[in-house]
């Protein structure tokens, strides 16, 4: 268990450089299983989610070479089945094994998934995934510690309609359909930039995929695919996190590798709150221009909306804005648990079951605390905090850095699931902290 002691109240200033998006890279690594030849993925971050997926791939016979500069070579020529207990031991709390199913069913005819974890942000079921796989002809068998899947008659293209534009379920369809026999039509697809980058990778491998209007994706199955060579899309969630950290600490951070196009919804909100930004060729500078910050009303949504992963660090900045801000979380039913620690530090945040803000969502009239009202500005005081999940944890770190006095933040290793060289970056930005194992 690792802990850092933060002496807050110092603006974060300097430069951080991004690598590839966690939420693309891990899926691209799985896609390599579909190829008959090795793949090369560049800009892979050194984060623990990548380590988990590497270990799972190695367990399935994929040879991996991961250089310090972020270039990863994946050779799937000796791919093999693995036992559920071993998958379980390597998966940790990751939900990624569910995405191995399509590729493994194509290559080996069977796949296992242990009971899955992931960040504790609601129930995070896998019903859409299982439904999708059944549509392609997979046979699903419940076993004591997980699920065994097989494809006795091979996988066949299907017409699939998702009840909600789930990122993972859309990836499931893509990774399964590209080598399924015949045509697949997916409606209700997620169209996040990370999904578009995965489609680009699959096309490089030889897949035939078209993205139509209105969330429809069509895939024409092919018999075999080759490896790919690809530079991963930048991590826009990390970019938004550092932007919020700049605002909350009265700082000035240049985020190298951040791009405007994939972050438009965030940039609009950042500007409305009163943050300043300069969009450059090689990144975006985010800074607090002085003066008061403004409250905002935000609804998290699927792309092209405001991402759910952007709200947590921004809440800290909103605690410094003058007036009432409202956030309606419509992607996950339970993603405000992290606000409890912020309240302990002096923020005024109340969470509600009602859909506050614009449109009623699928969590309304149910028992989910999925709306938050933040009243500011309030002074934040240092506290003892335990990191609960990846994005909530980053938010706590930002609060500790913005607060007066000292905070002890434990369980910080969880943040390295998604933020590469996190402590080094904090040091480069001038944060005052000490680290202990
Ligand atoms: N859902 C179901 N059934 C399913 C799958 C999803 O009901 O079978 C629900 C979820 O419970 C949730 C909603 O659908 O309410 C959206 O979930 P989605 O499937 O889109 O999320 P995911 O694929 O599990 C990815 C990212 C998340 C990010 C979401 C939304 C990865 C590894 N994770 O999760 O990232 O918040 O999409 O954009 O790509 C993070 O990076 O911290 C993180 C949680």
Summarize the structure.
By secondary structure, this protein is of the alpha+beta class.
Share of residues in strands: 15-25%
Return the structural class. Answer: alpha+beta
| Mean pLDDT over all positions | 95
Number of helices: 13
Low-confidence stretches: none
- The count of DSSP E runs of length 2 or more, i.e. the number of strands, is 23
Spatial ordering of strands, largest sheet: 21-22-1-23
Catalogue the ligands. Answer: uridine-diphosphate-2(N-acetylglucosaminyl) butyric acid
Helix content: 25-40%
What gyration radius follows from the Cα positions, in whole Å?
A: 22 Å
Indicate the CATH topology of the largest domain: UDP-n-acetylglucosamine1-carboxyvinyl-transferase, Chain
Record the SSE blueprint.
Layout: E1 3-7, E2 13-17, H1 22-31, E3 39-42, H2 48-59, E4 63-66, E5 72-75, H3 84-91, H4 97-108, E6 110-114, H5 127-135, E7 139-143, E8 146-150, E9 159-161, H6 167-177, E10 183-187, H7 193-205, E11 208-212, E12 216-220, E13 229-231, H8 236-248, E14 252-256, H9 264-273, E15 276-280, E16 283-287, E17 297-299, H10 311-318, E18 323-328, H11 339-344, E19 348-352, E20 371-376, E21 384-386, H12 390-402, E22 406-410, H13 422-428, E23 433-436
Parallel strand pairs: 2-14, 3-13, 9-10, 17-18, 21-22
Antiparallel strand pairs: 1-22, 1-23, 3-5, 4-5, 6-8, 7-8, 10-12, 11-12, 14-16, 15-16, 18-20, 19-20
The structure holds uridine-diphosphate-2(N-acetylglucosaminyl) butyric acid.
Uridine-diphosphate-2(N-acetylglucosaminyl) butyric acid (EPU) binds at residues 22-23, 95, 119, 122, 124-129, 164, 166-169, 190, 237, 307-309, 331-332, 390-391, 418.
Main location: cytoplasm
GO biological process, one term: regulation of cell shape
Domain Enolpyruvate transferase: 6-426
């Amino acid at each position: 268990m690792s802990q850092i002691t933060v002496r807050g109240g110092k603006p974060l200033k300097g430069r951080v450089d991004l690598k590839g998006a966690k939420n693309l890279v891990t899926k691209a690594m799985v896609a390599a299983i579909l190829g008959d030849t090795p793949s090369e993925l560049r800009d892979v971050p050194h984060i623990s989610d990548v380590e988990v997926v590497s270990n799972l791939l190695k367990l399935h016979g994929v040879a991996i070479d991961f250089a310090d500069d972020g270039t990863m070579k994946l050779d799937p020529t000796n791919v093999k089945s693995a036992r559920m207990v071993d998958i379980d031991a390597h998966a940790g709390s990751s939900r990624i094994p569910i995405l191995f199913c399509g590729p493994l069913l194509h290559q080996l005819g069977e796949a296992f998934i242990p009971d899955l974890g992931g960040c504790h942000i609601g129930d995070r079921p896998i019903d859409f995934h299982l439904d999708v796989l059944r549509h392609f002809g997979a046979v699903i068998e419940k076993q004591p510690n997980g699920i065994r899947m097989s494809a006795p008659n091979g996988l066949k293209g299907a017409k699939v309609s998702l009840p909600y534009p789930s990122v993972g379920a859309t990836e499931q369809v893509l990774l399964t359909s590209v080598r399924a026999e015949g045509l697949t039509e997916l409606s209700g697809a997620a169209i996040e930039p990370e999904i578009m980058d995965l489609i680009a990778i699959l096309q490089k491998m030889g897949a035939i995929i078209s993205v139509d209007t209105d969330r429809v994706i069509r895939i024409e199955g092919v018999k075999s695919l080759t490896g790919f060579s690809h530079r991963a899309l930048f991590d826009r969630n990390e970019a938004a996190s550092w932007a919020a950290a700049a605002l909350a600490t009265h700082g000035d951070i240049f985020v190298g590798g951040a791009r405007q196009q994939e972050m438009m919804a965030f940039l609009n909100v950042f500007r409305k709150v009163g943050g300043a930004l300069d969009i450059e060729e090689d990144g975006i500078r985010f800074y607090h221009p002085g003066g008061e910050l403004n409250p905002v009303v935000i609804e998290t949504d699927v792309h092209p909306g405001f991402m759910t992963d952007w709200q947590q660090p921004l809440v800290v900045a909103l605690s410094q804005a003058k007036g009432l801000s409202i956030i309606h979380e419509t992607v996950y039913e339970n993603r405000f648990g992290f606000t409890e620690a912020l309240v302990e530090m002096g923020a005024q945040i109340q969470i509600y079951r009602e859909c506050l803000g614009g449109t009623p969502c699928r969590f309304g009239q149910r028992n989910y605390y999925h709306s938050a009202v933040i009243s500011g500005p309030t002074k934040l005081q240092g506290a003892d905090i335990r990191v609960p999940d990846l994005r909530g944890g980053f938010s706590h770190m930002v609060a500790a850095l913005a607060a007066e006095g000292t905070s002890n933040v434990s369980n910080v290793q969880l943040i390295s699931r998604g933020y590469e060289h996190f402590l080094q970056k904090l040091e480069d930005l001038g944060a005052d902290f000490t680290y202990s194992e």
